[in-house]
């Protein structure tokens, strides 16, 4: 461990503290997808939807949030809508997506695939800035499947992680 820490420090990597919106149930999957590209920490399901609001805080100059979709085979996912709600103020935004999400980018070596769907960006930030909790409701259907809804409660937390000096 000491050797790893020494290598990281000498290579320009520093430990930083920043705000992050975390969904506890998908946090490990998000970290695995974003940092390792692997699937070891993914739930054992054919379809995994992971909200990624890591950069949607004051800690980042260009806030943005998106969904990560992971499947076991390449496919098209129809996300009808995503409703984002600031649980402090009650402000809400519903986004509609006429185009399907193509889940075709290989993820790891074990046959999983991923796709991304942008949700919110800097112009949307004022309505959600500083919220202690954000509720996200996603309405979707797989090819030929029935509509389903998944709800995520993301909590703002102060986290520490390694970052590269730029």
Q: How does this structure look, described?
A:
The model has no long low-confidence stretch (mean pLDDT 82). The protein is globular. Strands 1, 4, 5, 6, 9 and 10 form a six-stranded antiparallel β-sheet that branches. The two termini are 25 Å apart. The chain is mainly beta. The protein has three helices and ten strands; from the N terminus they run αβαβββββββαββ.
Distance between the termini: 25 Å
Per DSSP, what share of the residues sits in E-state strands of 2 or more residues?
A: over 45%
Give me the number of helical elements.
3
Instruction: Give me the strand/helix succession.
Output: HEHEEEEEEEHEE
The number of E-state strands comes to: 10
Q: How helix-rich are the residues, as a percent range?
A: 10-25%
Write the layout of secondary structure elements.
Blueprint: H1 2-10, E1 13-22, H2 27-36, E2 47-52, E3 65-71, E4 75-86, E5 92-96, E6 101-103, E7 105-107, E8 112-120, H3 125-128, E9 133-142, E10 148-164
Antiparallel strand pairs: 1-10, 2-3, 3-8, 4-5, 4-6, 4-9, 7-8, 9-10
């Amino acid at each position: 461990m000491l050797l790893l820490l020494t290598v990281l420090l000498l290579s320009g990597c520093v430990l930083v503290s920043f705000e992050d919106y975390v969904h506890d149930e998908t946090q490990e999957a998000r970290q695995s997808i974003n940092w390792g590209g692997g699937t070891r920490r993914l739930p054992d399901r054919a379809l995994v939807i992971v909200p990624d609001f890591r950069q949607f805080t004051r800690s980042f100059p260009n806030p943005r949030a998106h969904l990560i979709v992971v499947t076991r085979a390449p496919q098209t996912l129809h996300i009808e809508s995503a409703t984002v709600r600031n649980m402090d103020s009650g402000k809400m935004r519903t986004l509609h997506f006429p185009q399907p999400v193509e889940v075709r980018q290989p993820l790891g070596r074990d046959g999983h695939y991923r796709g991304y769907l942008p949700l919110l960006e800097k112009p949307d930030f004022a309505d959600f800035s500083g919220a202690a909790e954000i509720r996200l409701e996603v309405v979707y259907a797989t090819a030929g499947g029935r509509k389903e809804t998944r709800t995520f409660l993301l909590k703002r937390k102060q986290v520490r992680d390694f970052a590269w000096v730029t």
